[in-house]
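User: Some background: our group keeps a shared notebook of sequences we're curious about, and every so often someone picks one and asks for a predicted structure to add to the entry. Today it's my turn. The entry only has the sequence so far, pasted here. Could you supply the structure so I can complete it?
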Amino acid sequence: MIDVVITMRAVVEVPALDAEAPRPWPVESAAPFSWLALDASCSEEQVGLFVAALADRIDVPEPGGPDEVVDALLAEEMLVVAGGLQLCDIDTGTAVVPGCCAGLEDWRDWTEALAGDSPWLGHDPGPEVEVLGDHLRVWQDGGSNRHHGRWAGVHIDLPRVALPALLGSAHRDLVGFIAVLAGWTEQLGLGSRGSALVRTIDRDFAITAPFDLANACEAPGWPVGDRLRR
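Assistant: Of course. Here's the predicted structure to add to the notebook entry:
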């Protein structure tokens, strides 16, 4: 049998921000289209990058300072951002990341795999979950990379009963991040605007809403970080 360590993290895709545009707050320097993991360890600059990613797809009126950016975000019907859940095999360094057009707002759709279905994880390269009895095989490219009718290429295997614990870990990371976000808004002096932004992000990304996975599958999942045997 093979021992593996599997992790699942909430991530957002770093947008290609205009390098010459003024920033309303300090932002972490990160390569465009890389992945920013969200958890309680995020720095103020990383939180600033997350909020900048939210604002990157909307129009912000001049002068584009913190108040104007937050007001523009609060005026949106729903906040969305490219991202989702990233699955990693720590031993091999293999990672399956969200595909094009996948959004962090849909991260809870991963529970569909517990019912034997594949959640929609984005377009190209078309990540997909293949159900193999009691195991899940998560493909990075499930849309076009087929070989004689079967998937081929980068994938991660895990027992289906391990998924609830992995999702629970991602949920705790997001709850930790929302607390860091609240502190960030206070540091910026955003006042009631900041409080409203935290509530909106919490709501639109379904962060602190109850997430009961106790009865998600018949057998208990392994603790996250333990070695899974397959």
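Suggested note for the entry: The mean pLDDT is 88. Residues 3-222 form one domain.
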